[in-house]
Give the backbone structure.
Amino acid sequence: MTTASPTTLLDSLSALNDIARLRVLRLLSQQELSVGEIADILQLPQSTVSRHLKILLETKFVARRTVGTTGLYRVSDSMPSGASDLWGIAEENLTELPNTEEDYARLESALSQRQSDSKNFFKNISGEWESMRSDLFGSHFTSIALLSLLDPSLSILDIGCGIGNASSLIAPFVAEVVGVDRETAMLSEAKQRPGLATNVKFVQGDAIKLPMEDGRFDVAMFCLVLHHIEDTKSAICEAARVTKHGGRVLIIDMQEHLHDEYKHTMGHVRLGYSESDIESLASEAGLTLLKYHRLRPDTGASGPSLFAALFG
């Protein structure tokens, strides 16, 4: 049996003594990836990823091959015995690392993007058709057209509406939309949106003390606003109060994440929500979590992954 030298063993231990490198290895244990793909998935600068990969290459935890001008990395299948033993221990505990679900979701999106890029590269017919449709009609018409499936009699409350993005998007497909926000500057912008439907109105109010009567709306929604609210329980209870019997509360927000800087740069009071957090919020408000859906991350987006949750 070959025994690793003390120096080699210490180098191997040092290589694994970093969460970012362990997250890189977790990805590469699932799929061979390029530097750019790893950077997009982990939301790290390419220079940082390259530095981590250099260490992992030197300690023989990963291997590299070149396809054209692209370097592809994978977990090595010929590690020295000491490194292999350490990797076996680390691999058994990879699910305990932070951002496991988000990393896997972004990996899936990256692989989907890779497949799409490959189709476009080889100019097969489906790739040409998709490109032609986008050129002719844009890339968002399908999701917007599917809003036609909504019940046209619905009355919607958009809590924390901001400049009215969600309100203006859904208004043409329902009977009424009321957007409420505490910031007058946001509401002024919302009222000036071009092409605003006539069934939308914007009012000033606070999410924890809504200026609406009980049972007024079919649906109350929070679109990327709940993480700004300190007293989330009161906000959910207020949303429930103003919805009709049998109505729904929709939450669209960030999954739990590690971007602590958002507290200082954007005034976030919560670093996203786990599914169990959302289940607890529903229970505390006397509601039931009917659906919880992790939204597929956009490969070009730099922020955390999102979810949609429906309470009833």
Notes: Residues 121-127 have pLDDT under 50 and may be disordered.
